[in-house]
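Notes, Module 5: Reading structure tokens.

Key idea: the token line is not a picture. It is a compressed description, and you learn to read it the same way you learned to read a sequence, by spotting repeated patterns. We will look at two proteins. The first is printed below with its tokens.
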Amino acid sequence: MSSSSSWRSLLLRIGDKCPEYGGSVDFKEHIDTCYNVLLREWENSKDDIFELLLQCAEQLPHKAPFYGVLVGLINLENENFAKQVVDITHSRFQDALYSGNCNRIRILLRFLTVLMCSNVVQPDSLVGIFEILLSSAATTIDDDNGNPSWQSRADFYVTCILSSLPWGVAELIEVR
């Protein structure tokens, strides 16, 4: 197996053999292995690593905590990498809001929440996103100023916030 396919495989399969997925490998060991391989391959493949990590976070959302931890660990070595991950994720989130891509909105909000848990996104920034969505939902359902037919969008925004809370409520409680 080439080093390129090795890090790709590790990134795609992260968490697959941990007890939570019916396996026997400790997820911490799997994350450490993946992290060490990514660091070793960083100079040769940083753009590919960056892109695949973001694709995995979106296309394998049940593994978001693993990818969040990886970004947090890489952040300890390379703050610019984590900043780029946050910037791109935020940009993709805004694009999803603009285009009305509900699934992508939900997944990216969850990933931003996980990044907060890994000390990559500040809790206040995430709360700010929640507040903007809540404000938008409130305006949307305001019969005097908004469009009552948008009730489903308002409900969706609130549902997105509520569904992301289990991924980061412990950290958010400490903020307030």
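Here is the second protein, with the sequence above and the tokens below, as before.
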Amino acid sequence: MDATSFLTASSASLQAKKTATLLKTLGVNALITGESGIGKRTLASFILPDASIVDASNFDELLVTLESSKELIISNIDNSPNLNRLIDTIEENDVRIVATSKQLQFNELLDDLFSVKLDIPPLRERVEDVTFLVEKFTKEAAELFGSDESFNIKNFKPDLSQNAKSLRRQVMINYLLQDIGDSDLMGIIENYLYDKLGSNSDYRNFLYLYEVPLIRGGLKKFKSQLQLADKLGLNRNTLRKKITENKQYLEGEKQ
């Protein structure tokens, strides 16, 4: 999928794409708002595919670019250190702007500059888009790692905390690790611990790295503490103690 593609599986994203398609034919300035990782820049590039993208925090670069451009995408316009001067420069150079912002809030200067404001809902409100994004990121992972496109989604719970950003990272990690071997896994843990070890209680401090995955995986597979305790060769009270000690990592697990 190229940089100017925008997924339209959900009704919300379809409406956003329709509005963006209309904006391609109009010479008006537009503001696209929403959380990080929802596709604001992708949609902006769909509207102005030939325009450069400059973050508003890079103020000097932005002013210079405005003097030599007829159209421009300004990302994170809410981070501009001098909004008055920015808008004056836009108007003086008669530049068409499509900008992005994390929040849709009243601002008289921005209201005057932008004829159209388009707010994109987060992925947690666009469930249909998540499935298509997982497929897209899986294909990217297959190309990156030189493998096939199979991906085991059993027990896969999409991480939408940062929308597409966190979801893409999660898919990449899960794709890479789905066929990991014992030695690879131990190597990862070894590298993780190397810079963290140093106190006299490190064994106890890092024991959760072994116990938590074992308990979580066991509860998912065997469905109850009683069965898991039997499979692990522990009495139920010992397992309960381990669960209590690691409760911050085990909240929501089947008890």
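Summary for the second protein:
- The chain has a mean pLDDT of 89.
- Residues 19 and 118 are 8 Å apart (CA to CA).
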